[in-house]
Design goal:
- The protein is built from 31 helices and no strands.
- Helix 2 packs antiparallel against helix 21, helix 17 runs parallel beside helix 19 and helix 29 runs parallel beside helix 31.
- The chain is globular.
- The chain starts with 6 loop residues before the first helix and ends in an 8-residue tail after the last helix.
- The C terminus is likely disordered.
């Protein structure tokens, strides 16, 4: 019996569907949003907004999916693969050494399972709602429009502000390049699809212009990993087109594309083995190879060296100042993986590996790495071999699905090559970096598009047009109310508290910059910490930084400092108490133990209480046990011993620290100054011999000079120079 569709339900479903589609398009605008009132303005605000927006549109979609089967995604192999990956990450984070960090991350990264899971929800909404080509065109043109705005901002940075490595609204040149890379792939796909468009004479020039703009942005970002991946994949695609030309031609005929047939048939008469288009691809490929070879061969010429863009893009060396640290970090990650091979340490737990397996030769670069700076090693640490294999299987399954559907003539070979090239180039550039929210949303969007293109389109459309929900209207209403109340309740703790804490932290930092009364500064930090969210860690870190600045300013000149000795002591006590709370977790971070030891050291110099000295030494030695080769911990102990007259202990520790890495200038300075106090001429001469050989004395920055002056003041050698 035929049941007449309920027009009220149909209208309600249309309303929900359009709200969701608008929400999906609005998500593509998030890379433009910079939250200046929050910590890490390029990351924090947009990620919070993404999570909130996803929860809203997912709730609406879930109502539709429960009430009407046509909105449910098909259980394909790609759906299963992504679900397995999310499940493995969840288990790894749940069993991690620091579950809070694994699930909620921090303001600087805003990742953890929270973001990964929201990306999964976002993906399900995409595949559940965007089931027609016009839906995808709306979504893709939305993100394309945003990419143009971002690209124009980057060009402005380069031309008007003379910024060498542009980053636009993404805040990082690497992320900008990866973002542009996705839009290069998108544009190639739109250019191919627009051949059937009756308005192609209008849209094609626009697409080509934007394509040129996006490629220019990749070059202006000076991101070698993205450039390398783009070149490698382009060469591979050109070579594949040449080798499999007959397959390409056959596929074109099967898909009834007269615009391509005419170009091919006009020059080969269906019999010529090497038609002009094929020869043109060969010439183009040879030209690219010759150009790249020439640039690399002549990279040491004055012409290349004088051009910062060409010089950076053509110089790939293991001795490079950015590559060498990454190799060392990868080695540390490998050692950590061997200790936890199956499920890893959980997200945001790389600090455990870093502090245990720290390479002393890394000192002088970034102080504390929280990532392995490679997607392979990052997932080995985050979720072990199971996590890495499940992550890589997403790429493998997506590529195999595209190839299978191409073989069955369901997807044209050109579109197949574009999508495979996009996934491949994205994976290659990720070998050298870690991922970011702005790129994740594009990656999951293209995975959803792959699901759409490799599913049975006719079956999907038949379900969509034939299935009508028989649920009463109140089911929709009741489910909507329940889901939205759940979102509001959960959002208070998951989103709004950390958002307010971040804003409150900014106010606390501003209060110190404005030199407000000390009680106001402490009160504002206390106000931020009362929210008691995952932002506590970041808040305490910035509290310590503020305390150090105030203490250092007082020590340099007590009379000109806006704060008295008692006020500085009050701030130090407050900071120490908060860091003590931070270090009570089951698997403490040596970096935060160092901050507490440093705070107690400063407190001991303000108030030479034996308890403060002993506590400082105790916490620093505990940090040293966690990270036995980290020189910064030794340097703090040397400060402590030197300040309270333990010259022999300071001298012995200085030598030990320096011998870990003789190129490390602060350790050499400590050996020199402690040896001066002990009149150890042999050690003084040893340092002198190293200067100019392994220590670049010309590279001393102003901060290090301040350290030198501090040490010289301690040694009462104010009239001597280095």
């Amino acid at each position: 019996m035929h049941i007449k569709p309920n027009s009220t339900i149909q209208n309600l479903e249309k309303l929900y569907t359009w709200i969701i589609k608008i929400g999906l398009c609005l998500i593509t605008f998030l890379p433009l949003y910079i939250s200046s009132s929050m910590l890490f303005p390029y990351i924090t605000g947009r990620t919070f907004l993404f999570r909130i927006m996803v929860e809203i549109i997912f709730s609406l979609w879930l109502v539709l999916a429960i009430c009407n089967p046509k909105f449910r995604p098909k259980m394909t192999i790609l759906f299963t693969t992504i679900t397995i990956f999310i499940a493995i990450v969840f288990i790894a984070d749940l069993l991690s050494f620091n579950p809070q960090a694994a699930f909620f991350s921090n303001y600087e990264r805003m990742e953890g399972f929270m973001t990964i899971f929201h990306l999964y929800l976002y993906w399900m909404v995409l595949v559940g709602i965007l089931k027609q080509n016009k839906d995808w065109l709306l979504f893709f043109h939305s993100t394309l429009a945003v990419s143009v705005v971002i690209a124009i901002q980057a060009v402005y940075q380069r031309l008007a502000l003379n910024i060498e490595r542009v980053d636009s609204t993404l805040g990082n040149p690497i992320y900008l390049a990866a973002y542009a890379l996705f839009h290069v792939g998108l544009l190639l796909m739109l250019i191919y699809q627009s051949q059937k468009n009756p308005n192609k004479k209008i849209v094609l020039p626009i697409y080509y212009l934007i394509l040129l703009l996006q490629i220019s942005i990749i070059v202006l970002s000076l991101t070698r990993g993205v450039v390398l991946s783009l070149v490698v994949v382009s060469i591979f695609c050109l070579l594949s087109s040449i080798v499999f030309w007959k397959k390409f031609q056959t596929s074109t005929e099967n898909h009834n594309l007269p615009h391509l047939q005419n170009k091919i048939l006009s020059t080969n008469n269906q019999n010529q083995a090497w038609p002009l288009p094929r020869l043109g691809l060969v010439i183009f490929l040879i030209s690219i190879v010759l150009l790249i070879t020439g640039l690399i061969y002549f990279r040491n010429t004055e012409f290349i060296k004088s051009n910062s863009t060409l010089y950076r893009l053509t110089n790939y060396s293991l001795a490079d100042s950015t590559i060498t640290p990454r190799i060392m970090v990868w080695k540390m990650a490998w050692k950590g993986f061997l200790e936890q091979p199956f499920l890893g340490y959980g997200q945001e737990n790389y600090y455990l590996v870093f502090q245990k397996h720290f390479d002393p030769n890394l000192e002088g670069h970034e102080a504390w790495f929280d990532r392995a700076h490679s997607i392979v090693f990052d997932w080995l640490i985050n979720a072990g071999i199971l996590g890495l294999l499940s992550y890589l299987s997403i790429f493998i399954v997506a590529i195999l699905l595209l190839l299978y559907n191409c073989h069955k003539s369901k997807i044209h070979i050109i579109e197949t090559m574009i999508l495979i090239g996009l996934f491949s180039s994205y994976l290659i550039q990720n070998l050298f970096v870690f991922d970011n929210f702005n790129i994740y949303i594009l990656f999951f969007a293209f995975l959803a598009y792959t699901q759409y293109r490799t599913s049975d389109g006719e079956e999907t459309l038949s379900i969509q047009t034939a299935t009508t929900s028989q649920r009463p209207v109140y089911h929709y209403t009741l489910l909507t109310i329940i889901f939205f109340l759940t979102i509001i309740y959960a959002g208070i703790g998951l989103h709004f508290k950390p958002i307010l804490q971040s804003k409150s932290l900014i106010l606390a930092l501003q209060s110190y910059r404005k030199k407000q009364p000390m009680e106001n500064i402490i009160a504002k930090f206390q106000s931020a910490l009362k929210y008691n969210s995952f932002g506590n860690t970041e808040t305490r870190k910035h509290l310590w930084s503020t305390t150090q600045d105030a203490w250092f300013e007082y020590k340099l000149n007590p009379t000109s400092s806006p704060y008295s000795k008692n006020e500085i002591e009050q701030l130090l006590i407050f900071t120490n108490n908060e860091l003590e709370q931070e270090n009570k977790i089951a698997n403490p971070n040596a970096a935060y133990m160092l901050l507490q030891g440093s705070t107690l050291n400063m407190l001991a110099q303000i108030n030479p209480n034996i308890n403060n000295i002993k506590k400082s030494e105790k916490i620093l030695l505990e940090a040293n046990l966690l990270s036995p080769k980290k020189q910064l911990i030794y340097l703090e102990l040397i400060k402590l011993y030197s300040a309270f007259g333990h010259n022999q202990a300071a001298a012995d520790m200085a030598k030990h620290t320096w011998y870990l890495n003789k190129k490390y200038l602060p350790a050499a300075i400590d050996v020199w100054t402690t040896s001066l106090r002990m009149n150890d001429q042999k050690s003084i001469q040893e340092v002198k011999n190293e200067i100019g050989k392994s220590i670049d004395i010309t590279a001393i920055d102003s901060q290090t000079l301040n350290v030198i002056r501090w040490h010289y003041n301690q040694a009462q050698l104010k009239n001597k120079t280095l």
